[in-house]
Amino acid sequence: MSMTTETNLPSLEELPGTFLVSLDNYSAISLKGEEQTNYLQGQVTCDVSSSNDNNLLIGAHCSAKGKVFSVFRFINRNSAHLLIQPKASICNSISELQKFGVFAKVDITTTDELSFFALVGEQAADILQEHFNQTPNSLTPVVQSNTTTLVYVSGKQARYILIDERSVLDNIINTLNQPIYHSALWNLLEINEGFPQLSTISSGEYIPQMINLQAINGISFTKGCYIGQETVARMQYLGKNKRALYSLKTHLTQPLENEEVIEKKLGENWRKAGDILATYQADNGDCYLQAVLSSDLDDSTLLRIKSQPESSIIVQTLPYSLVTE
Fold first, then answer.
1. How far apart are CA 275 and CA 252, in angstroms?
2. Helix boundaries (H) for the chain
3. Strand 159-165 with 148-153, pairing
4. Residues 214 and 135 in one domain
5. Do 18 and 73 fall within a single domain?
6. Is position 321 within any domain?
7. What whole-number distance in Å separates Cα of residue 243 and Cα of residue 212?
8. Residue 11 pLDDT more than 90?
9. Distance CA 139, CA 152 (A)
10. Please, which residues have CB within 8 angstroms of residue 195's CB and are 6 or more apart in sequence?
11. Quick one: 184 and 213 in the same domain?
């Protein structure tokens, strides 16, 4: 039985109750070997030493100057550490990890043998329970069922990532009998959740706090030293960060351009407001954007798309707080 992918691009309000998303734009960096944990602990922002086979961590891999190469979801699978992320952010990250990894007993590769799908929505948990002997939840976000790894991603709506070899995953997806959407829909969900999405262009451009990593538990401030740690700590404790990640929405009458610009009104003029990281434009014209802007935005700030000056951008409420306790 062949799988058919939906070609339409629904808005958030038009999403079906439960559905699948093909994450063909996702992969993972795999680290495996005697020193995999010790090595990775000194490379990334999350506390790798706290990981086990059933928990899920969020982290970032930074340059020596504290600029983020990649943002990932971290799990263990078959004795290997996996940094799950868009393929677009892997290149810079893996080259840096491999550069220093030659001095440690660790093999660092991409998981080309694995595929990724997501099951999303109201009935997702019940559907998984019908097909697997154990399913993940908020207390146990990662479980292994035969050869398949299931990952629970918390948020406004439950999401479950399924990981296995392509042939195995195809068989599973066919039995789930749910509509399948293109990976673009995952962009919509990540924008809605305020989870940063880096591309080949934005990789290496931002300090972790500029893309809200501190607000989604993506930084451990107690784990000790790692590459870029001094910059990250200085930004946190001296309060020098002036930028943040935002989820935005507008309605457009024309398709977005490739290198689109968000403008902010200053007096009688309009000026560039920041950088767009990810976009999703629904068939009905609703457009969702993830952007790094000044952290002092308020309700009086007027924003628009430069190429469509009649547009009006609304700042969406994030599912987490940017206020530091």
1. 18
2. 36-41, 90-101, 124-131, 166-176, 184-193, 229-238
3. antiparallel
4. no
5. yes
6. no
7. 9
8. yes
9. 9
10. 71, 216
11. no
| Sheet-wide strand order for 80-86 | 57-62, 68-77, 80-86, 26-32, 107-110
Label residue 100 by pLDDT band (50, 70, 90).
confident
Tokens of 42: 């000194």
Domain boundary among 193, 220, 251: 193
Whole-number Å distance between alpha carbons of 31 and 111 = 10
| pTM for the structure as a whole | 0.95
Distance between terminal CA atoms of the chain?
Answer: 53
Residue 284's closest CA among 39, 16, 21, 9? Answer: 9
Q: How many C-beta atoms lie closer than 10 Å to residue 168's C-beta?
A: 16
Residues 122 and 232 in one domain: no
Number of CB atoms found within 10 A of residue 187's CB? 20
Asked whether residue 174 is domain-assigned, the answer is yes
Give the single-character DSSP code of 205: S
Its domain, for residue 22, covers 14-193
Alpha carbons within 13 A on the beta-carbon side of 57: 23
Same domain? For 182 and 256 the reply is no
What is the rounded CA–CA span in Å between residue 240 and residue 144? 42
Helices and strands per DSSP (H, E), number in the chain: 6, 19
- pLDDT band at 292; cut points 50, 70, 90: very high
> Is residue 145 classed as helix, strand or coil in its secondary structure?
strand
> Residue 134 domain-assigned?
yes
Q: Does 133 lie in the same domain as 37?
A: yes
Give the residues across from 32 on adjacent strands. 107
